Amino acid sequence: MSHRGRPSSFDRKVALERAMEVFWEKGYEGAQLVDLTTAMGINPPSFYAAFSSKKNCLLRSGRPLYQHRWHSTERRRPATDCVRCSGNHHCVATLTDAGGCLLVLGVVNNLSENDEIWNYLKNTRRRTSALIRARLERGVQEGDLPGNTDVNVLASYFLGLTQTISFQARDGTSRAALRRLLDPAMAALPSARHNRAPHQQKHT
User: Fold this and answer.
1) What is the separation of C-alpha 170 from the centre of its chain, rounded to a whole number of angstroms?
2) 143-161 burial by CB neighbour count: b if 16+ within 10 A, else e?
3) CA dihedral 140, 123, 73, 170 (to 10 degrees)
4) With contact defined as beta carbons under 8 Å apart, do 99 and 170 qualify?
5) Is the pLDDT of residue 5 over 50?
6) DSSP secondary structure of 81-134
7) What is the DSSP letter of 192?
8) Dmax of the chain from CA atoms?
9) How deeply is 78 buried, as exposed, middle or buried, from its count of CB atoms within 10 A (0-12, 13-18, 19+)?
10) Which band of pLDDT confidence, cut at 50, 70 and 90, is reported for residue 191?
């Protein structure tokens, strides 16, 4: 039995990965059907048969950001290394490759009929902030960061840094130039060593 409108070589997983690249580059509002079908290598009937709508295509594409970089596999590393390498270095590489960020573009472009997508992207941003905050809290518990570290402010700061990187990447800033932002940004992380009492510092 033939499947009308869908080529036999159709690979949904690959198609979704290609669709997500379009969403990252153009944002949800800016991604047109022709952009998606061209990238996915299928025709409009195949697209609608598989996903029914652009909204469902995005929602079924998986996590659109680098949230996984903050999960348990990074717990073996100090909090400072995790923030630098897992968050910001990965952010620079990803966003310069993509030419922008779906989540950030979702802030500035929002039509009322797309409120479900806007809320989905907003909740993803909030979850990412919560993951950063949780990693910083663990850093305090493990002694990587001082006990008086304001993890809420720092989580907002580093999420904001990723958004800054996104806009500059979209404006054509090179990967090397964006990476030069990381050293001054990392200076915002307090040192647990500097927070020790004088008698503790003498014995380190």
Assistant:
1) 14
2) ebbbeebebeebbeebbeb
3) -100
4) yes
5) no
6) HIIIIIIIIHHHHHHHHHTS-HHHHHHH---GGGHHHHHHHHHHHHHHHHHHHH
7) T
8) 80
9) middle
10) confident
Asked if 74 and 82 count as a contact pair (C-beta separation under 8 A), the reply is yes
* CA–CA separation, 204 and 196 (whole Å): 10
Q: How do residues 114-137 score in pLDDT, each as one tens digit? A: 888 888 888 888 888 898 898 889
Nearest C-alpha neighbor of 145 from the set 51, 65, 82, 58 = 82
The separation between CA 103 and the C-alpha centre of its own chain, rounded to angstroms, equals 7
pLDDT at site 192: 56
Given a cut of 90, whether residue 40 has pLDDT beyond it is yes
Which are the contacts of 24, defined by CB distance < 8 A and separation ≥ 6? 64, 98, 99, 100, 101, 102
Instruction: Tell me the HSE value of 97 on the side-chain side, using a 13 A CA sphere.
Output: 8
Task: Give pLDDT, residue 195.
Answer: 46
